[in-house]
Design goal:
CATH topology of the largest domain: Rossmann fold
Structural class: alpha+beta
Distance between the termini: 39 Å
Shape: globular
Number of strands: 27
Strand content: 15-25%
Largest sheet: 8 strands, mixed
Number of domains: 2
CATH class of the largest domain: Alpha Beta
CATH superfamily of the largest domain: Vaccinia Virus protein VP39
Length: 664
């Protein structure tokens, strides 16, 4: 029996909606963005894929609810959980597996129905208690009125040596350009905060280290040569230069240089840091491909990436969480963990221009570790819903996500406002429509045998290697996933930044002692081509084992410039016994995304549809050439070539030669 996806996929519609979603994916599917994860694909694309597996043609429409009731969908490499969320909305049972604990915890938190009244009450209790402990360290006085007010964030410069003299480096001396053209800037001599045209009277008498802007080439009439003192912990390499707040008696942001009282509070936090019960051995950095960026700076412990106030925040959060019920504790623990992306001493400042949204350049804005000259220490318990605060994150990641999950919406494309003759009601200024009858939630089960046709949509989560899935043979109808790409970003390595804290925030919620060497893209020494092929072969073999007979389909998205990546994929598919049924190409990446900007990045994904080879009668012709000048055509040609190679009777060692020749 064929599926509609075997022969048909609306790529025009998929591209239209993906080009909109790619710019702000978290606004389109807020419930799947509770915690930081990387390389998420557009949910709309996966909804379209799943809709083409629906038997009832009337329910196959993108805007029609449901359609997969009773079907079991597996994602063996679930990452951000896109497949699970999209499939459970269509009334399917879903199984998600991942070696990493963060995807498992995030899926459990976001797929489990929660009493929002109870969650809101618990959050308020948690936030109030946390704020009581932390706020005293984030208080200052408004420089204009003298009124005590909470600090929004603190800006730091980094200490360096230039031509033998101590200096402090910043990204820019200008801290703010208002809409009327007025500025807030730092005096490079005495570090005073100067508003608009004010001129500092310090002259040459200032005794503080001079402030230098990033890119300084000449200092003291000599070519600037810089050195760094890595003998002190990372957090101590930064000097506070400006406190930013909102005075209750005045409008707009206020900037001030820290005074004696402010510095005394910072010193007190530093003293308390020494009393915190954190064992440095628990936070040691294991060198992976991304975390090796920390080694040249002699950073070997995650604790050193956080200020003393940030560690106090984490300590009190850890102390407060055990009082809450497990499902509430899971949500709050993930909330605190994801807040660390906006609350570390790796955060930069991008609030110079008032017209630019948000002041924080978060820790992983470049999918890597970066080290700003102007570091930003956020106030996580700031009472307003400001960028990176608990108040803001609870609103955007938890409250908005759960409300959306109860009434999912989809973007309406063009002038289409009806499904099966029924008019769609557009309930916002943007053309979004609620998909009546859908819910992004289900009931968690412990075994796949509990997933019956009579059962409401359910989910099963497996933490462990997908080379050995705890599932019966022929137990899932379809497998839809997005595998890690050969030589891709080391997400497991980057995730350690959160993992070391989550195992203290949620110690009993996951297996924190798992072996990262089982990751398909290993963050340590085994991330070789052969290891990738071996692990993907093992995962694909398990997919073949658990997939139901001739009607089962194995579907995933993929793209890669490197012939070794395609060759590894081909070998894994051959060993597992899969053949290509069809391939489609869809838009996938925002071209101005900061982590691909300026790179030779593919902006499209190939959607590859496979079935057990004995169920495939399609004969693939070798393409005359692979177009390497166009992202979309390249992915299409590679998909076609993959289908052809899978049908060739050649030894595995010849597979890479075929790809190498094709992608010369």
């Amino acid at each position: 029996m064929k599926t509609p996806l075997d022969t048909d996929f609306n790529t025009d519609f998929a591209n239209q909606i993906a080009q909109l979603e790619a710019y702000n994916k978290h606004h389109y599917r807020p419930n799947s963005y509770l915690h930081k994860w990387w390389a998420r694909r557009c949910g709309s694309t996966f909804r379209l894929i799943l809709k083409q597996l629906v038997e009832d043609e009337a329910r196959r429409d993108y805007y029609a609810p449901g359609g997969l009731a009773g079907k079991i969908i597996l994602d063996p490499m679930m990452g951000g959980g896109t497949t699970l969320h999209e499939a459970i909305r269509l009334d399917a049972h879903v199984v998600g597996a991942d070696l990493e604990p963060i995807p498992v915890l995030q899926a459990r938190a976001t797929l489990t129905p929660v009493d929002m009244v109870a969650l809101e009450k618990a959050y308020k209790q948690f936030y109030t208690a946390l704020r009581k402990e932390i706020t005293p360290f984030f208080q200052t006085k408004c420089p204009q009125t003298g009124v005590e007010t909470p600090i929004n964030y603190t800006l730091y410069g980094v200490k360096r040596i230039c031509n033998g003299r101590s200096v402090i480096m910043v990204d820019s001396l200008v801290l703010r350009v208002e809409s009327d053209g007025s500025t807030v800037q730092l005096c490079p001599r005495c570090h005073a905060v100067l508003v608009d045209t004010a001129v500092c009277s310090c002259g040459d008498s200032a005794e503080k280290p001079p402030l230098l802007e990033k890119g300084t080439k000449i200092f003291a009439e000599q070519p600037a040569e810089f050195e760094d003192d890595y003998s002190i912990p990372h957090y101590q390499r930064y000097v506070p230069l400006a406190l930013v707040m909102r005075c209750p008696r005045q409008k707009g942001l206020r900037f001030k240089a820290p005074d004696g009282h402010d510095l005394a509070l910072l010193a007190l936090a530093d003293d308390l840091r020494q009393t915190l019960p954190f064992d440095r051995a628990d936070f040691a950095i294991e060198p992976g491909r991304k975390s090796r960026q920390l080694t040249p700076r002699e950073i070997d412990n995650y604790l050193d990436l956080f200020s003393s106030r940030q560690l106090l925040y984490l300590h009190h959060a850890i102390q407060l969480l055990p009082q809450f019920p497990p499902e509430i504790r899971l949500n709050l623990g993930l909330l605190v963990s994801t807040s660390l992306e906006f609350n570390s001493m790796l955060c930069g400042y991008k609030g110079k221009n008032k017209r630019r949204a948000g002041a924080i350049r978060h820790t992983f804005s470049h999918h890597a570790y970066s080290f700003p000259y102007t570091a930003l220490e956020n106030n996580p318990v700031y009472p307003r819903k400001a960028s990176g605060t608990l108040q803001k994150l609870f609103q955007s990641r938890v409250r908005n996500g759960r409300l959306w999950a109860q009434k999912p919406r989809e973007r309406v494309i063009g002038k289409r406002y009806s499904v099966s003759g029924k008019r769609l009601s557009v309930n916002s200024k943007l053309p979004f429509v609620e998909i009546v009858g859908e819910r992004d939630a289900g009931v968690e089960v412990q075994q796949v045998v509990e997933m019956t046709a009579e059962q409401v949509p359910s989910f099963l989560l497996l933490q462990g290697s997908s080379t050995a899935l705890d599932l019966p043979d022929s137990s899932v109808d379809f497998i839809v996933t997005d595998p890690p790409y050969f030589d891709s970003v080391q997400y497991s390595d980057l995730a350690a930044f959160f993992r070391v804290w989550l195992r203290h925030l949620l110690p009993d919620a996951a297996n924190w002692a798992y072996d990262t060497q089982e990751s398909a893209v290993d963050p340590h020494q085994l991330d070789s081509e052969s290891r990738y092929t071996e692990l993907m072969s093992g995962i694909f073999a398990e997919c073949r084992r658990v997939l139901k007979g001739e009607n089962g389909r194995f579907i995933f998205t993929f793209h890669h410039w490197n012939p070794k990546g395609w060759a590894a994929l081909t070998v894994a598919l051959r060993q597992a016994g899969f053949a290509l049924v069809n391939r489609y190409v869809v838009y996938s990446e925002n071209p101005i995304s900061v982590h691909i900007s300026g790179m030779k990045a593919l902006l499209h994904d190939a959607i590859l549809v496979f079935a057990p080879k004995e169920a495939v009668d399609m004969v693939w012709e070798r393409p005359s050439h692979i177009n390497q000048s166009d992202s979309e055509q390249f992915c299409y040609d590679c998909g076609t070539f993959l289908g052809w190679v899978l049908q060739q009777d050649v030894v595995e060692t010849a597979v890479q030669d075929l790809w190498q020749e094709a992608l010369l």
